[in-house]
Design a protein that fits this description.
alpha/beta; Rossmann fold; five-stranded parallel sheet; 18 helices; 10% strand
Length: 478
């Protein structure tokens, strides 16, 4: 039921009010009321969460029990905050005070004349659909984000700052719509006409520019001494070949080589070949997003960068869909995905652990969580997601598990490949690894556990000593 209004209430003391509210709003408004909408045999929490994520606005019936911290309503309005929903408090009982996170929002008082309050609520819900109402919703979200930023830890600060920057851009644009709707509508129409004209141009216009199919620079370039990981490359190859698979999670501790492995494979794919003689493979586009790179992992970037692989007219139309608050979030990504009906498009989400909540391993950004789930749930499309992460996203792995591949990378390089890597790094022989005894290099592998980054660090330390003219005396063969 996309675009509905979700009623949150306490079953202990608000059921009658919620039923009356539902009956009064139902003519003219789509209302989600659990007593009518919950499906038997299905997970209730999942149904509630899906309903909140798709709602047009969240109606919170405030009664003594619903505002209590122990009531499940707290989980519901917390989800509404996470999903960036407009929350409308409804005072259903005189002896209630709004919860802390809602006390700055104006409520609608239902403790007097019910019909008058319903009329006011209807008027308010209609106003929320207007440009001015949409602007107010954006300002409310910005206030919430600024509040969260003041309390954020290092793990979530970057994500919230990105959200704030995007909200400020949206507010600036929406303010222009409110102040001069006709001028903004005319500019939008001009943009669409220009996009249609560009789409009519030849695919490769003479003297013109063509759209690149590799979006953003990769997080890193694999060094020339890269070794092994043949089995992992085969698993990734099989994932990319299987049209039924949507998401691959490459999970392992820091320094194990996750990012290097994937970037090496994708760089090879840019030329239409898999590495290590695994054969040819064509891709129609590669999008690189990295939490520590030049393009952060979030829904606006994911959506915008995938649009860059499409014709301009299509991209403009999709951008309008993405910015339309009347369209439920779970409809936006499938609308994009259906524009990739065939072929193969790869999206790398690197260092994904930085967008996870450190407390429970769930995705901290509710909009991103919803976007990835929508891509997993959508009908057939050609988008392939690859995550590299130190921590596996727990809840996401439970969504459409048949469409996911999990690849743990928990072992360092085998001894023979660790030895080869050490010799390759010391190509000039400056630290005498190039011609060292295998037994000595095997001990180096043992101490570093074969982790590529640890082997690189060992070489860097020895090279720094050598440059200071400190003589490294090799012990007798061990």
């Amino acid at each position: 039921m996309p675009g509905h209004y979700f009623i949150s209430y306490s079953d202990a003391d608000g059921r009658d009010f919620a039923q009356r509210l539902h009956d009064a709003l139902e003519p003219g408004f789509a209302v989600w009321f659990d007593k009518h909408e919950l499906k038997p045999g299905m997970d209730w929490d999942a149904q509630f969460r899906a309903a909140i994520s798709a709602c047009q606005a969240f109606l919170f019936a405030m009664t003594p029990d619903s505002v209590d911290d122990t009531c499940t309503c707290k989980n519901e309005y917390s989800d509404a905050f996470r999903f960036k929903k407009t929350i409308v408090p409804l005072k259903a009982h005189k002896d209630t005070q709004a919860p802390f996170r809602l006390n700055a929002r104006q409520y609608i008082d239902f403790t007097g004349n019910f019909d008058a309050a319903i009329a006011k609520l209807r008027e308010h819900l209609e106003w929320l659909k207007s440009p001015a109402g949409e602007l107010q919703s954006l300002n409310d979200r910005l206030a919430d984000a600024n509040r969260d930023l003041r309390r954020a830890d290092d793990t979530n600060r970057a994500r919230i700052e990105t959200d704030i920057a995007q909200l400020k851009q949206d507010i600036e644009k929406q303010t222009r719509v409110v102040e001069n709707p006709q001028a903004e509508a005319e500019q939008t129409a001009r943009n669409i006409r220009a996009g249609i004209e560009r789409a009519r141009e030849p695919e490769k216009p003479v003297g013109g520019t063509t759209r690149t199919k590799f979006i953003n620079p990769p997080p890193m370039t694999a060094p020339r001494w890269w070794q092994d990981r043949y089995r992992e490359n085969e698993i990734i190859r099989d994932f990319l070949r299987d049209d039924a698979m949507r998401l691959l999670t490459l999970n392992g501790r820091a320094g194990i080589g996750k990012t290097t492995l994937v970037c090496r494979l994708l760089k090879s794919l840019e030329a239409g070949q898999l590495p290590d003689d695994l054969g040819a493979m064509n891709v129609d586009g590669i999008v690189y997003l990295s939490a520590v790179g030049t393009r952060a992992i979030n829904t606006p970037n994911l959506f915008a960068d995938l649009c860059k692989l499409l014709p301009d007219a299509t991209a403009h139309a999709l951008d309008a869909i993405y910015r339309d608050p009347k369209i439920a979030p779970r409809e936006k990504l499938p609308a994009l995905a259906e524009k990739f009906p065939r072929g193969r498009v790869v999206v790398l989400l690197d260092n994904f652990e930085t967008v996870l909540d450190a407390r429970d391993g769930d995705i901290a950004d509710a909009e991103l969580d919803e976007a990835l789930r929508a891509l997993l749930d959508a009908p057939h499309h050609a988008i392939k997601l690859i995550l590299t992460t130190r921590v596996a996203p727990r809840d996401l792995q439970l969504a459409q598990p048949a469409r996911q591949t999990y690849l743990p990378l928990d072992e360092g390089l085998p001894v023979e490949f660790a030895i080869k890597m050490l010799r390759e790094m010391d190509a000039s022989g400056i630290v005498h690894l190039k011609d060292a005894d295998d037994a000595l290099l095997a001990r180096a592998r043992e101490y570093t556990r074969g982790f590529p980054r640890a082997l690189e660090a060992l070489y860097a330390i020895l090279a720094a000593w050598a440059k200071r003219s400190i003589v490294w005396i090799r012990p007798p063969s061990a």
